[in-house]
Amino acid sequence: MRYYKKELVHTIMSKKVIIIGGGIVGLCTAYYLHKAGHHVTVIDQSTMDFGASYINAGYLAPSHIIPLAAPGVMKKGLKWMFNPTSPLFIKPRFNSDFLRWVWAFNKSCSVKNVARGTTAIKDIAVLGRDLYSEIKSEEKFTFHLEKKGLLMICQTEKMLEEEIRVSQIAIKKGLSAQVLTKEQLKQVEPAIQLQSNGAVRYDCDWHTTPQTFMTEMKTFLESSGVTILKNEKVTDITIKNNTIHSITTATKSYVSDEFVMTAGSWSSKLCKKLGINILLEAGKGYCINSQRDLGITTPAILAEAKVAVTPMQGFTRFAGTMEIAGINQTINKVRVETIVNAVKQYYPSIHLSTTEKETAVSGLRPVSPDGLPYIGRSNKCTNLTIATGHAMMGWTMGTATGKLVSEIIADQKPSLSLDAYHPDRKF
C-alpha cells in the first residue's frame, strides 16, 4: 500500500514539458526531467549532430572561475577589434541588441562582477563536473571521461604571473592548483617538445570527448521514452495571460504544461516573442581535429593564444577563439590559421596539415554580458524556464543546469542559489 501511494503522488505531479533546443543543456535538462517522472519532448531546428555541443574542448573545468567580463577585457576587445587574428574578436554592428549588449558587457568588466561571478561560476562548475561522473556510474554509460587535470601553459613571465594570480583565487575557493616550472612541465609531457616558461596545473579539472557523451545521452533518452524531434524550427509562440499556451513549427503546434528555453544563441530571438529581452550574443569558436598520435597526454590551454588542446578518444582537438559577429556559421580561414600558428608556436614539432585544417568546424556559444548563464523563470512568463548564456562554460555547466531546471519545474529547493543566474537581472 505504501508503494502504491508513492507511485500515485508521482503520477499526479508529473508534467508535460517541451524543451526548445537539443544541445548539451537541452539534453541534460531532458535527462533530469525524465528521471523525475515528467513527459519530455525535445525540439531542435537542426539534425542534432553538430554545433558547439559537439566541437568544444570537452573540458569540465571549475578552474575557469573568472567571468569573460573582467577588468581590462573591454579595452583589449577594442584593441583587438581591428585584428582578425586576436583571441577575442568583436565585429562592430549598428544593431540595437548588439549595442545594448556591448554597453552591458563594458559595464560588467569590473572588479565587482569578478567578485560576484567567481563564486557563482565555481559552484555550478563543480556541480556540473561531478554530475557527469554520477550519470556515467548510474546509467552504466561508457562515454570518455578522464581526470587528468588541466595545464595553463605560459610562454612569457607576465602571463605566468597572471595565471598564478588566478590560481591563488581558485585555491581560496577550494580548488586544487599548483605552479610548474618548465622542467616539471616536461615531466608531465615527456613525449612532446614544448616551448614554455612554465605552467599552472589544475588537478580539479577533467575532460571528455563531447561526441561520445551526446550520442550516448540521445540514445538513452529516446530508448527511455523521451521524444526528440529534429529539424523542427519553432516559428511562433502563443501566449495567454503571461503563460505559453503552445509553440508552432513548420509542421505542427505543440501544447504543454511547461516550456524550457535551451536554444543557445537563438534563445534571445525566441524570447523576444514573449516580450522577454535577454541580452545575448553568439560567440563563434573553431576546432581542428588531428587523428595522428601527437604525444600529448594532458589537456592544456596555450595561455597567451587562448587555444585549448585536448587529447580525446582517438584524436587530439585544438580549439579556440571567441568571435562575436552575429549568428553565422561561416568558417573564417584567418581564425583557423591563428589556431594552427599557436600550436606550432607552443609545440614546435607539431605541424597541422592542410587536410587537418580543412576539417575545421565552428560552433556558436551563447554569451551573456556578465559572463554568467541565465537560469530561471522570467517574471514575464509563468511556465517558461530559461537556461542559456553559458558562453565557453556550457559543456562544464550543462549537467548542473539540467538538474537545476528540473528542480525549478518541480518547485523544489534548488541545489544552488539561483540569484546570480536570474534571467531578469539588470546590467
List the helices and strands and how they pair.
Blueprint (H helix, E strand, L loop, with lengths): L1 H12 L2 E5 L3 H12 L3 E5 L8 H4 L3 E2 L12 H8 L7 E3 L5 H13 L2 H29 L5 E2 L3 E5 L2 H16 L4 E4 L1 H7 L9 E5 L3 E3 L1 H14 L3 E3 L4 E7 L2 E7 L3 E3 L2 E4 L5 H6 L8 E10 L9 E3 L4 E5 L4 E9 L8 H14 L7 H5 L2 E7 L6 E4 L6 E5 L5 H16 L18
Parallel strand pairs: 1-2, 1-14, 2-10, 4-18, 6-16, 14-21
Antiparallel strand pairs: 3-9, 5-9, 6-8, 7-8, 11-12, 12-13, 15-18, 15-19, 16-17, 17-18, 20-21
How would you summarize what this structure contains?
With 427 residues, the protein is an alpha/beta fold.
Q: How would you describe this protein?
A:
The protein is of the alpha/beta class and 427 residues long. The protein has one domain (2-421): FAD/NAD(P)-binding domain. It is built from 13 helices and 21 strands. It has helices at residues 2-13, 24-35, 52-55, 73-80, 96-108, 111-139, 157-172, 182-188, 210-223, 267-272, 333-346, 354-358, 394-409, and strands spanning 16-20, 39-43, 59-60, 88-90, 145-146, 150-154, 177-180, 198-202, 206-208, 227-229, 234-240, 243-249, 253-255, 258-261, 281-290, 300-302, 307-311, 316-324, 361-367, 374-377, 384-388. The strands form 4 sheets. Strands 4, 6, 7, 8, 15, 16, 17, 18 and 19 form a 9-stranded mixed β-sheet that branches. The protein has a 6-stranded mixed β-sheet with strand order 10-2-1-14-21-20. Strands 3-9-5 form a 3-stranded antiparallel β-sheet. The model is unreliable at 1-12 (pLDDT under 50).
